[in-house]
Amino acid sequence: MFYEIRRYQTQPGRRDEWVRYMEEAVIPFQIEQGMTVTASFVDEEDPDGYVWIRRFEDEQERLALYANVYESRRWRDEFDPKVKSLLLVDQIKVTRVAPTPISALR
């Protein structure tokens, strides 16, 4: 099992709008497609920072779920344009991590 920690920068001053969109549209859609969204955070030290975490059982599952989400017509037509309008997409940072033996997230 592993996690993706995804760090985003919103367009300046648009984080609240982004959080609403994530919680009302993006996260529910991804969960419907089989994603496990573990957490969603706003950065207390950066007014435009947002972090979320997804969990995958293995690389095969990640690839299948990425295809379900990002290759879907709905993602391309509805979500992708909105995401690109709210985020600084060139600043997206994804860190892949695996829990240690005593981690509560195992």
UniProtKB/TrEMBL annotation:
Domain NIPSNAP span(s) in chain numbering: 3-103
SUPFAM superfamilies: Dimeric alpha+beta barrel
Signal peptide extent: none
InterPro entries cross-referenced by the UniProt entry: Dimeric_a/b-barrel, NIPSNAP
One Pfam entry name: NIPSNAP
Protein name: NIPSNAP family protein
